[in-house]
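Continuing the batch. This is chain 6 of the set; chains 1 through 5 are on the previous pages. Same settings as before, nothing changed between runs. Recording input and output for traceability.
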Amino acid sequence: MDTYSPEDVPVLDNYDSVVAVFGDFLTVAIHTILYERGIYPQASFITALMYNCPVKQSRHPKVCNWIQDAVAAVEDEMLKCALSSTSLVIHAPPPSSTPLERFVFSTASFPLVPQSETLATFTTEPPPAMDLPEQFRAIITRLSSLSSTLGSLPKDCTFTLVVDLRDDAGADSPSSENSAWIAADLGLQKKRKQAGESNQSSNKGHEGQKGKDRGGVRTTPIRSLESGAFAMEMWIEEGREKTS
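Output for chain 6:
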């Protein structure tokens, strides 16, 4: 991770650059969350510099490779305008593996751009070069101070990255085309009512389990930011198992 200088900050003048900037931030945020929530020993992290502030980065090659590959897979789907949000989910230790915390990055307000036009220049004026790094720095600083609010987690927790498709994407699950993705547990899946389906019919069988681990029992807003075409909200959901 390298710090951004005014000359290095990409101008968000097309959709490809918007996705790239989000991918960079998501990478930093994942490393920060894994450090702050004690998923790995803190001694296995180094201090780097990003957005002109110190951030934590895992120095374990397999962890870094996993994060890099996961973020790249997210970027691939975002370039198709298929995603509404990305979540880092922390699970209780096996065998229960129930979701304890969900760190949600909502990009539902990102523009819808045809794949053939991701490099086309936006017609609106790009945002100031240093605007987003300042806001990203504020989010990372907030994440670094949340441990006292969220409390401690049990040892040996695991984590995964979950994506939600846009309701209007009209696309199949990414897993049908991309082996990097598999279907999430039913409790983390977003309920999707089919055309003509009643509320009663949508709760039958396995469908009734969908979404039961979403929303949590307590939500902590982190930040809502908007800069040109880049519009994102972030919040944390704490699951029922954690607070019971």
